[in-house]
Design goal:
The complex is a heterodimer of chains A (245) and B (380). Chain A is of the alpha/beta class. In chain A, 26% of the residues lie in helices and 29% in strands. In chain A, strand 10 and strand 11 form a beta hairpin. Chain B folds into three domains: 7-120, Butyryl-Coa Dehydrogenase, subunit A, domain 1; 122-232, Butyryl-CoA Dehydrogenase, subunit A, domain 2 (Beta Barrel), CATH 2.40.110; 239-378, Butyryl-CoA Dehydrogenase, subunit A, domain 3, CATH 1.20.140. The longest helix of chain B is centred in the middle third of the chain and has 37 residues, at 231-267. Classes of the chains: A alpha/beta (245), B alpha+beta (380).
Chain lengths: 245, 380
Amino acid sequence: MKFLVLISNVPDTTTKIRFVDDNKAFDTTGVQWIINPWDELALTRAVELKEAGGIEKITVANVGESITEATLRKALAVGADDAIRIEAKPKDAFYVATQLAQVAKDYDVVMVGIEASDYNGSAVGGMLAEILGFNSVSAVSGMNIENGQLSLTREIDGGQQKIDVETPVVTIVQKGIAIDPRIPAMRGIMMARKKPLTVVPAVDAEEKTEYISFELPPPKAACKLVDEDNVKELVRLLQEEAKVL
Amino acid sequence: MNFEFTDEHLMIRQAAKDYAERELLQDVLERDAKAEFPARHIKNLAELGFMGMMVDPKYDGSGMDTVSYVLVMEELSKIDAATSVIISVNNSLVCYGLCKYGTEEQKEKYLKPLARGEHIGAFLLSEPEAGSDAMHQHTLAENKGDHFLLNGTKNWITSGNSASTYIVMAQTYPEKGYRGINAFIVDRNSPGISLGPHEDKMGMRSSDTHSVMFTDVKVPKENRIGEDGFGYKFAMKALEAGRIGIASQAMGIAAGALERTIAYSKERKAFGTEIANHQAIAFKLADMAVKVENARNLCLKAAWLKDNGKPFAMESAMAKLYSADIAMEVTTDAVQIHGGYGYVKEYHVERLMREAKLTQIYEGTSEVQKIVVSRTLLRE
């Protein structure tokens, strides 16, 4: 079984978010880039399954410019066998899914994080499955392979659902797929340099989204402390200032 | 000049940082309180390849350079120097010494499990009356032909109980002075070895420090490292490299204290504003940051010299001297800025201050480093 794990290159989760270009674009100055945390968990599970003998090969792929190669190298260090970078600036989910479709068609199982921690679109996985005509399973929190059969666990309202699926399939994975993201071992880091990283040109794809403006959430208001014996004042503040009562 | 790290350096640093923040931080306070050895962490860190970082992969090491080692020591020591000292002793004293001076047989038998981290190594030089005065070894290693017979006591041995492989310095020809000292690889389970109690230390409490007593311990002659009488020189050469590890540890302790203090200063309010907005605090932070950056540069310079096959004895002594001294200063300032909170364990900086103190003492006191530096300066 051949696995493709899609890797989004996203800003470190502690990044201070700023916008440029009249609030139409994210300011990437000084940003440290990481593997999208959900994709990192997906990769971790794929590596675990490969170590258990269920997977023939793990490829990682992304759509991005050359700056994203460090993120792919880390994925190789964690345990992927090879990497594909599609040379393009990711524009929107449809554009990204169209680009990825050209490489994903050759794989049995595609793993994609439920969302990327930058724009949180949650759309690429579903679109990719539709474009390719693959099965698609969302909210996947567990994955196993036994005797060549792929079994998934889905999170549903109030419980879990276990299903067996036919490949090829796009699995949209979330928290629970692996416990902690795998930290690359020193040997993996040294080997990553020698693993193949192929750059593929972008295909023509329509850009269906236009960004009009981004804005930051309002800053947190200062906290007001009310004496414990002054319930009246608390109720007044909740009614008149917070307007929640 | 090129101050850029490679992509590998950055990945290695991140791996150490991730492990430290995700795993070591969880139980560091508890292990410090209970003086409990970090066995689980050493096993995990071994799997990540941190126990034999600079050992050639043909001897099961990770094949990294010394710059990587500095980065790893810094990140681990920011959170937990008691764990990082076990790594430092294993890497830069024991593995380095065996890599450089061990025979092929010694490397196969002893270096490989040490580099894999399946065995932990300890370096037995200090004695009750021979610390800085390492030339005057009282432990005897009588030459009995096919073996040596060890008798004596070693003090302050890091990983004294947890180690499987000891490197022991002992006197074979007292009449020859330090030229009569030999270094031996000794199996921890050899008959005649007994341990003193776990030392109840001020800091680095979860590393297990013991005295080790040798009573008629037989060591096969093939376990001697180098030529007859090479032991003192061996120890000094191993310490030259080991200093880079402890220098980086001290720098990491200081860097950890600085990071915590910056975060605290931006949150804690006094006189109507975050304390970072008071110049008394802001200037102190600036002074601390300059010291940490200087220490980091000294450590990296010594590592770069070593990686490029250039002499590094004076630079590693400078790095150890400066990093240890500023670690004490920076952690003391960190506690001061935290005020009362700095004096309780929950905020970590009092522990970092206790850990910093040892870096001025072990693997060559600050005074010994001054001897090394000044002698090199005055040699010409």
